[in-house]
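sorry for the late reply, my laptop died twice this morning and i had to redo everyting from scratch. anyway the thing you sent over, i finally got around to it. pasting the sequence first so we're on the same page, its 452 residues, then the predicted structure underneath. double check i copied it right bc i was rushing
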Amino acid sequence: MGKVIRILSPPLQKLFLPSSVIGGFLALLLGPAVLGALMTFIEGNGTFLSNGIFPEEILGVWQVIPVLFINIIFATLFLGKKLPNMKDIWFIAGPQVAHGQTIAWGQFVFGMIITILILTPFFAISPMAGALIEIGFEGGHGTAAGMGVTFDEVGFPGGTDLALGLATIGLVFGVIFGIVLINYGVKRGKTEIIHSKRELSLENQAGIVEFDNRESAGMLTTRTESIEPLSLHFAYIGLAIGIGFVILQILIFIEDITWGPATGIYFFELIPLFPFAMIGGMILQIFLDRFDIYKTLDRELIIRIQGLSLDVLIVSAIATLSLSVIGENFVPFLVLALVGIIWNVVAFIYIAPKMMSSYWFERGTGNFGQSMGMTATGILLMKLVDPDNKSPALEGFGYKQLLFEPVVGGGIFTAASVPLIFQFGPFPMLIFSCIIFIFWLCIGFFYFGKKS
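ok and here's the structure:
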């Protein structure tokens, strides 16, 4: 239904809004949060449609889906990719790595500052809200939903809905502001590839590939009478998640027999599984690169599974969003959203050209789109500003993920940020974030900014 609405709505096409987001809002409107609340207000509890059009069983499944599917998404990040050596990554993607890391750690810094100075003293919101900008904007819907169990365990259950709300705001405004910034860049001569607004128009804003231009969604790497290739790829993903699960359980066990009982600090049991699923995927890929002589893993098929998982996750996450939690914390939510958006725009307009001496606009749009909630948004904006991949932006963006995703944007530190604040308080977290933020800022300004 989201796709049908997008096809029938030219304004939504011009916004390049994903169909999963439209579908999620449609489900939200028809669920207990909007239609159900309206019918309850009119007719009272227990009446027809007081829970929306969806039975409790469906809503129960939707509430669980994001926590599960985020593991699939992160397990597939590096499966099927040839992992290059670090020297190549640093040479090609170094400026984008420094800029992306600066944006991510800046979201922690400014989120913590605004929470410590305003949100906690005046609105009594949990100090853990300081991590919400990075979780919602840089991490996106998947990370926000995947953190649900962690938020519950640390006594901040509303954090999930606030993070999902920020992810939705970031996704929508990431596309809107991204297109505005691209038009601004073309008009002011900031771009190096396209030089007129006509080149920004896409032939098929409805998102339908012409029949003659359609390509295969993936290669069949095994004969179906032996094993269905899709089954094999799901098995690989399950194995990657399993490796991550074992790693996490080992760390929890070590914590339980060492510093945990002595200090009362239990850290790893609060971290969700998905960043370790990503590590499991990297370990499995290294193993397959060395021992899979038949090359049975196809990256295109993995990407299709990843895309399916992300679509389902976004629909279910938005559909089960608690508007009452956002309403009760509307001012803190609005403040966090504004701070996040302003910082991302400033980091793109003023910091990107000082860190990237060539193709800064093309490279920066990818980081801006990702910093607003989705890697796909970053890729979309790069495609708009560099449709034929003439700049190193897309290649560098892909390499960047190897040094970016394991740490922030849903990586280990993103997942650990809330437990860290819970265990040690907001001030140590702010100090640590400031140190890392300044480090990447200096690397970008004084190292990559001076290189041609």
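The longest helix spans residues 86-123.
thats about all i looked at so far, will dig more tmrw
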